[in-house]
Amino acid sequence: MLLLKLFFAFIQVGLFSVGGGYAAIPLIQEQIVNIHGLMTMEEFSDLITVAEMTPGPISINSATFVGMRIAGIPGVLICTVGCIIPSFIICLTLAHFYYKYRTVSGVQVVLGSLRPAVVALIASAGASILMLGLFQAELPDIVLRDIRIVELVIFAGALVILRKFKASAIAIIFGSGVVGTVVYTLMGAVG
Predict the structure, then answer these.
(1) In which residue ranges of the chain is pLDDT below 50?
(2) Integer Cα distance of 78 and 154 in angstroms
(3) Residue 72: is it exposed, middle or buried by C-beta count within 10 angstroms (0-12/13-18/19+)?
(4) How far apart are CA 86 and CA 67, in angstroms?
(5) Which residues of 142-171 are buried (b: 16+ CB within 10 A; e: fewer)?
(6) Taking the domains of the chain in order of start, what are their residue ranges?
């Protein structure tokens, strides 16, 4: 029953995550954390962090990690296949119709109208990850006094370095991880 629940959850993620992997994050969160309660928000946040660092599409990585965390190897297979099947079928169908009707102006209008929805989904995922990183809570539960100062300083520093010095995003991710590890190690040794 659990595997079937996971399969249908990720079929829905695969069906409605228009715009790529980052657009899938709020959908995966809704299915796994909010609707089915299979993970806590903190576990999901940690999982997304690992999925982002792992090479490959984030939606597939997330499906794989969720499946492994909840149901082991069968969960990996079920979640990953559930996430891939809708995209596979939709892409085959759209490719067929696009090549057949690509000169029709209505096709271009439909594709253009999807852009704002994709931008909104990606912005939602980014805001959700930022709030979890800085407050360990989602928007309704955020209290300014609960801000995590170390994470805020690392985020602000990384943002300045990225924008002003045009540093590599990979170097910034790695450097942020090193700085965070060092700071929390020192804080643990002092405390």
Answers:
(1) none
(2) 37
(3) exposed
(4) 17
(5) eeeeeeeeebeebeeebeebeeeeeeeeee
(6) 2-144, 148-191
Q: What is the chain's mean pLDDT, rounded?
A: 87
Query: For residues 66 and 100, is the Cβ–Cβ distance under 8 A?
Result: no
Task: Render pLDDT for 99-154 as a digit per residue (tens, 0 to 9).
Answer: 888 778 887 788 788 889 888 888 888 888 888 888 876 666 777 777 889 999 99
